[in-house]
Amino acid sequence: xxxxxxxxEQQDTLICDYNEELLKLCQDKSEEFFFFGYEHxxxxxxxxxxxxxxxxxxxxxxxxxxxxxxxINQFMNYETMNAxxxxxx
Length: 89
Prior knowledge:
Layout: H1 2-6, H2 13-17, H3 19-35, H4 43-53, H5 60-69, H6 72-85
Helix pairs in contact: 3-4, 3-5, 4-5
């Protein structure tokens, strides 16, 4: 998440202004996934997945929509593709 805050100068100010709230929203989503049995999912992973869904578009409403509508199968597809590409953290 450190690199996310470093790139704030390059991002739309709305996203940077609301990073803390977006991370709280991602934390809520990770807790939702926890109830489905996925204990390993962290807020930063959901944030990165939502950014990839919005194609790094910096519109706040699109980012919020991507986080709220994220389903577990979309997240697992994202993780699988990153594993194939070798982007795992």
